[in-house]
Amino acid sequence: MNESPELLTIEPWRRSARTEAFRGHRIQIYEGGNTGGETLLLIHGFPTAAWDWSRVWGPLGTEFHLLAPDLLGFGFSDKPRGIDYSFPLQADLCETVLASRGVERFQILAHDYGDTVAQELLARRVAGTGAAGLDAVCLLNGGVFPERHQPRPIQTLLAGPFGPLLSRLIGKDQALRSLARVFGPATQPDAADREVLWQLIDHGGGRRVMPRLLRYIREREIHRDRWVGALLESPVPLMFIDGLLDPVSGLNMVDRWRALLPGSRLVELPEIGHYPQLEAPREVLAACLPFFQEHRQH
Fold it and tell me: Is the confidence at residue 132, as pLDDT, over 80?
C-alpha cells in the first residue's frame, strides 16, 4: 500500500502538525495545501487519526486549504479518560479549529466516525445553529445509517460493561488482526502501515479510552433522527464513496443510501474495504475532487 518512502514511518507526518488547545486539552492539527483556496475539513474515523488522509493530502492540497485535526481521544491528540466523548463535542472541536483561522466557507471530507461528526455539523447548518459556511459534504465508509451499521465483535465487546477490563488485555497483534479484517483482501495494510496504525491507536493510552469512545455506537442510535435527518434535509450537495467489501459499512450502507438519498452522488468501489482513502487513494481523488471543485465558492 505504501506509495512513497516518506510514508514508511509516522514521524514526517507527525512533525507537520501544530499543537493547539481545546477545552484544556492538547489537539494535533494538520494544516496545508493552497492557503488561498477554499478550506476542506478532513475528519477521520475510529480508531485511527488524521494520518488516514496522508495518501490524498498532496493532490487535494493543490487546490484547497486543508485542515485535519486528530479528534479528541485519537491519534496524537490528548486521550483523557475522565470525559464523555460525544459527536457534538468533536463537532465543537472542528468549529473551534475553523473559527480560530477565520474560515468562512468550507467543505467536508469525512470517514467512519468522522461521518457522524460531519452529520452533526450538517444538522447545525440545517438548524441555523452553526457551520453556516458549509458548502458540500463527501462521506466515505461509515455508519451514516445506524440501523445498517455492523460493528466488529471486538467493538461490541469493548462498548459493553466489560470494556474497561478487555481494553487492558487487548494486544497489538489482536487489535491489528481485527482492523485488517475491514480492509479488502487485495488491499491489506503492509507491515509498515500496520505499525503506523498501531502507533495511532495506542499512543497516549489509546486502548484505555476505547470503551468511552465506542459509546458512539449507542449515541448514533439515540440521535439517529437528528443525524439521518440532516442528510435528508441537507441544503448542500452530498456525496458518498463506499468500498463495498467493508463488512462494517459496505454494501449494506450503499443500499440504504441509494434508497433514502436517490438524488445525491454515490460512488461504489467494488474491490475496496473500509478505508478507501488508504486502499484506493486514486479512485477516491478521481471521485471527490471534481465534486469539491464544482461546489467551492469563488
Answer: yes
Overall number of domains in the chain: 1
Q: Which residues 6+ apart lie within 8 Å of 221 measured at CB? A: 146
DSSP 205: T
> Could you give the CA distance from residue 293 to residue 298 in angstroms, rounded to a whole number?
10
Cell representation of residue 91: 463537532
Is the pLDDT at 142 greater than 80? The verdict is: yes
Spatial separation of the C-alpha atoms in residues 143 and 91, rounded to whole Å: 17
Range of the domain at 190: 5-295
Q: What is the pTM of this model?
A: 0.94
CATH of the domain at 97: 3.40.50.1820
Mean local confidence (pLDDT), 280-288: 98
The answer on pLDDT for 248 being more than 50 is yes
Is the pLDDT reported for residue 167 higher than 70?
A: no
| Nearest residue to 60 (alpha-carbon basis) of 29, 93, 37, 91 | 37
Supply angle C-alpha 19, 106, 28, rounded to 5.
10
Per-residue pLDDT of 152-165, as tens digits, reads 777 776 667 756 66
**177 contacts 152 by C-beta, under 8 angstroms:** no
244 within 8 A of 269, measured Cβ to Cβ: yes
Burial 66-90 (b: 16+ CB within 10 A, else e): bbbbbbbbbbbbbbbeebebbbbbb
CB of 21 closer than 8 Å to CB of 96? no
What does the DSSP assignment read for 125-193? Answer: HHHTSS-TTEEEEEEESS-SSGGG----HHHHHHHSTTHHHHHHH--HHHHHHHHHTTS-TTS---HHH
Contact 151, 248 (CB under 8 A): yes
